[in-house]
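QA checklist item 7 of 12: single-chain prediction sanity check.
[x] sequence parsed
[x] length recorded as 162
[x] structure emitted
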Amino acid sequence: MKKYTFGLLLLLLCSMELHAQNVYTQIRQKALAVVSDASSNATVRQYCQFKVDALDYMAMKMKEKMPDSTATFLDKQALALNQFTSLYMQALFDHRTDPATYQVKLIKLFIDASISNPLFHDNDRELTLSYFANADSPTRFSLDTDWQRAYIVVYSELKKLK
């Protein structure tokens, strides 16, 4: 349990709100550092790997589909992704002793928010839902997510669940 708690604290530290000029780069670098650290908690590494993959996907698709968009847009999406995954981890941790049916409902809320709020409307479902399709992944979310909208949806729905 101490390892799990330490891993959660490490993840939350990695996800603190950043106000630097290039949020995307900082979030990606911190997540990549955790992924590269073999001594990190395995679950935390998986969460951080998802962040790296989601950020890389977002940058690639923005260059392809939104070449005129600003770095600020990418930073806002990166920050929202960070907040979304942090809220997910916090919700799982806070409700770890609740009945399994409630926990499943909670997880489904985050998955649905991710899948139902696409940013690029990418038709490559195999790629965008690769984490969702992996039952062993703790982050069964879509890579093609408007993280700002998904975060708002989840945040408001969590208030209704209480």
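[x] summary fact logged: The radius of gyration is 15 Å.
[ ] second reviewer sign-off
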